[in-house]
């Protein structure tokens, strides 16, 4: 009896880690799985390019807006119940967006973004609470699961659509509700009980950081590199289709680019730690990212596969370094929590503008030159913020 109890206790962390990985896999397909289907959705519904930009922006907007709500819900109902409710809402919203016309599509997309935002803001706290001795490893697995989920969503979107007949894009979108249900069931069975988020002091710290220039640079770098990433999630397939690729190949190219982020998320901290501070790493990886994006826009079509890999390496490493800067620029654990909340709120609200602006510019210009100028300006702004955030110093949060 005691042996059985000991075996269960030993297996519990591994089981929880696997469950967290499964939950994290579900936090990106709702976004990346729509991008390869945008042209089919627009043809079937009459949605404009600007409207498609709004559709791809809604989930990212929710990530920022819902961040404070997720913490409040966890304090009231516990982390375990809040994450479970978020997963169930995600499954329901993924079904909702295909049961009707455009109103259902937009409502379901909004609800999916809200659900993901609630879950996403709580998972790092679970990692810190339940894996205190392996925070780095679990954070890496969490980041890899996000990238893997995004890659699967992009790569399987068109093949899943081809399983159906009329309105086959609806089938592709709806099928992602199934893994969300599986993740919810696994979470209900494996997640430990808890007494809440324990973040009662987080709000005051976050407010204090809004007066600190370095905190704004960290948040700005996170937001601007995320803006470029979500422009890629939302519009890279359309960009490549316009250059002559088939929808299937364009979706596969996005999937390859996202898959290239998997090793990059682990290599980013190593690259950042090679210098006295992180400024050279920020410069190098932003150059890599923009070279990859420029290649996708203007290099010969036969070379696109090399450029999407380069793009993925740059974006994956930039995201990891942006996350690392939150920790390195914070003098204590309370400031880490406050700065993390600020970067998610500011960063994702800023990132949400990217796909929408790209859609407006694409509609207005009828091509990709105007969006390319926007990408270049955003990259220069991200580089400026990153060079400031990369300096070896701490933010100062004064209440």
Tell me what the structure shows.
This protein has 399 residues and is an all-alpha fold. It has two domains: 15-200, Growth Hormone, Chain: A; 201-392, MFS general substrate transporter like domains (Growth Hormone, Chain: A). It contains 17 helices and no strands. Helix 12 runs parallel beside helix 15 (304-328). It is globular. It starts with a helix and ends in a 10-residue tail after the last helix. The chain crosses the membrane at residues 50-70, 82-99, 105-127, 139-161, 173-193, 214-236, 248-268, 280-300, 306-328, 335-362, 368-389. InterPro entries: MFS, MFS_Cyanate_Porter, MFS_dom, MFS_trans_sf. Keywords: Membrane, Transmembrane, Transmembrane helix. Pfam families: MFS_1. Residues 12-393 form the Major facilitator superfamily (MFS) profile domain.
């Amino acid at each position: 009896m005691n042996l059985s109890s000991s075996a269960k206790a030993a297996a519990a962390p591994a089981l929880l880690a696997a469950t967290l990985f499964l939950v994290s896999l579900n936090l990106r397909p709702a976004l990346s799985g729509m991008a390869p289907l945008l042209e089919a959705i627009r043809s079937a519904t009459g949605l404009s390019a600007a409207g498609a930009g709004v559709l791809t922006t809604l989930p990212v907007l929710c990530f920022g807006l819902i961040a404070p709500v997720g913490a409040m819900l966890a304090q009231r109902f516990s982390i375990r119940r809040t994450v479970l409710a978020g997963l169930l809402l995600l499954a329901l919203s993924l079904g909702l967006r295909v049961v009707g016309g455009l109103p259902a599509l937009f409502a379901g997309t909004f609800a999916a973004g809200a659900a993901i935002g609630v879950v996403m803001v709580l998972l790092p706290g679970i990692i810190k609470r339940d894996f205190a001795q392996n925070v780095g490893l679990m954070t890496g697995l969490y980041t890899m699961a996000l990238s893997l989920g995004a890659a699967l969503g992009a790569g399987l979107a068109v093949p899943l659509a081809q399983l159906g007949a009329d309105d086959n894009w609806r089938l592709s979108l709806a099928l992602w509700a199934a893994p969300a249900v599986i993740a919810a069931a696994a979470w209900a069975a494996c997640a430990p009980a808890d007494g809440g988020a324990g973040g009662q002091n987080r709000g005051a710290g976050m407010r204090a950081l809004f007066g600190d220039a370095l905190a704004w640079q960290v948040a700005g770098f996170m937001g601007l590199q995320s803006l470029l990433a979500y422009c890629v999630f939302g519009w890279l397939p359309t960009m490549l289709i316009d250059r002559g690729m088939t929808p299937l190949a364009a979706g596969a190219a996005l999937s390859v680019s996202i898959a290239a982020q998997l090793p990059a998320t682990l290599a980013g901290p190593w690259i950042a730690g090679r210098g006295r501070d992180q400024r050279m790493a920020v410069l190098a990886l932003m150059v890599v990212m923009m070279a990859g994006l420029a290649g996708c826009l203007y290099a010969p079509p036969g070379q696109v596969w090399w450029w999407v890999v380069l793009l993925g390496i740059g974006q994956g490493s930039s995201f990891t370094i942006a996350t690392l800067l939150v920790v390195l620029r914070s003098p204590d654990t309370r400031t880490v929590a406050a700065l993390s909340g600020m970067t998610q709120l500011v960063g994702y609200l800023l990132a949400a503008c990217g796909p929408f602006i790209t859609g407006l510019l694409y509609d207005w210009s009828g091509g990709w030159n105007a969006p390319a100028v926007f990408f270049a300006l955003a990259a220069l702004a991200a580089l400026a913020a990153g060079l400031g955030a990369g300096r070896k110093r701490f933010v100062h949060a004064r209440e």
